[in-house]
């Protein structure tokens, strides 16, 4: 079986989003189905300024039993893979350095703050693999776009 592509996945702005009406933060509708989709199709690497335990807590809060079952199937002792990109100037600098180490592995990046195509090109990151998500996108729409990218890359 071929290796799953890597999905570098931001937490804030994708899973956790600002809400209207004086609420501070919440989760997008369809989040459980989204998490199931990305874990079935990708090796997910979480990019966040949050410590791994907070990312774990968010996933456990959203995905509940499904997250626990996923962990048990893969390894009960494995925490979500979280990358500390803070030693780099930016996430794109981290991705550029990391991609150089993992040549040949399919990858995508989903974030609410993707730099310009020019910047991505300068770093050797293919812009079509970088999916910018805005706060009003519904996850089903994002899933459709990501599915198209998967097809394009195969």
Poorly predicted runs are 75-79
What is the H/E string?
EEEHEHEHEHEH
Backbone structural class: alpha/beta
Number of DSSP strands? 7
- Any idea what the radius of gyration is? 15 Å
What global shape is seen? globular
How many DSSP helices? Answer: 5
Whole-Å distance between the termini?
14 Å
Could you give a short account of the major beta sheet?
A: 5 strands, parallel
Helical residue percent? 40-55%
Mean pLDDT: 79
| Estimated share of beta-strand residues | 15-25%
**Biggest sheet: strand arrangement:** 5-4-1-6-7
Written account of the structure:
The chain contains 5 helices and 7 strands. With 154 residues, it is of the alpha/beta class. The two termini are 14 Å apart. The protein has helices at residues 31-41, 52-74, 91-101, 117-122, 139-153, and strands at residues 6-10, 16-18, 25-27, 43-47, 82-83, 107-111, 130-132. The chain has a 5-stranded parallel β-sheet with strand order 5-4-1-6-7, with helices on one face. It has a two-stranded antiparallel sheet with strand order 2-3.
Briefly say what this structure is.
Helix content is 43%, strand content 17%. It has 5 helices and 7 strands, in the order βββαβαβαβαβα. α4 (117-122) links the parallel β6 and β7 (130-132).
């Amino acid at each position: 079986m071929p290796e799953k592509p890597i999905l570098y996945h931001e937490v804030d702005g994708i899973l956790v989003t600002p809400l209207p009406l004086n609420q501070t933060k919440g989760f997008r509708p369809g989040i459980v189905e989204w998490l199931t989709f990305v874990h079935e199709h990708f090796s997910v690497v979480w990019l966040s300024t949050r410590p791994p335990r907070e990312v774990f807590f968010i996933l456990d809060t959203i995905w509940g039993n499904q997250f626990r079952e996923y962990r048990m199937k893969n390894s009960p002792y494995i925490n979500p893979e979280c990358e500390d990109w803070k030693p780099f100037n930016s996430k794109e600098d981290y991705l550029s350095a990391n991609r150089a180490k993992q040549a040949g592995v399919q990858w995508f990046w989903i974030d609410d703050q993707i730099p310009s195509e020019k910047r991505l090109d300068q770093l050797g990151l293919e812009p079509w693999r970088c999916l910018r998500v805005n706060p009003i996108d519904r996850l089903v729409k994002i899933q459709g776009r990501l599915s198209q990218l998967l097809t394009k890359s195969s």
